[in-house]
Amino acid sequence: MRSIKALMLLTIAFTVIAFSSCKKDNNEDTLATSTITVDIDGTPTVFTTNTVALKGELNGKEITSVQGTDKTGNTVSLTINGSVIAGKTYLSNATEIENKSNFLFTTANDVDIYSNDDASVQSITVTSVSANRIEGTFTGIVNTSLFGNGAIKVKSFTNGKFKVAIISK
């Protein structure tokens, strides 16, 4: 499990590097319509700021991170390890690292950092993928067991959907 947590931290680092080194594309129309929607503990939440899928490699393996920020500054990052295939579901408890999903949710100002809840299964299903866009659904539970302030906090993600532009590195 520590390797999963380490992979999540590497995903954050990958995200920072990717955003700081991205060049402007002709994907502006696609980027402008990129959204992530999800009910967090039953509350509908929309992520439209810096909402994008970043595609690259980590230790020679393909990794795709779908991420965005909501209007209050909360961020979500959904990571798919391995090749992205339309119609495939990636699970946090997959035995092969290439089929794993990882969730990361950070509250505004990094007050609390939530990651995969080891007691439940987080899933990401890719419904459509092209060279410049990915769409899918997701669901799962995250908690602050490793990170955060004070007592363990839990958040439930239901009805999650994403339609975002892909930026390849």
UniProtKB/TrEMBL annotation:
What are the record keywords, sorted? Signal
Q: What PROSITE patterns does the record point to?
A: PROKAR_LIPOPROTEIN
Q: Which residues form the signal peptide?
A: 1-18
Q: Which domain of life is it from?
A: Bacteria
Protein name per its UniProtKB record: Lipocalin-like domain-containing protein
Q: What organism is listed for this UniProt entry?
A: Mucilaginibacter rigui
Q: What is the lineage of its organism?
A: Bacteria, Pseudomonadati, Bacteroidota, Sphingobacteriia, Sphingobacteriales
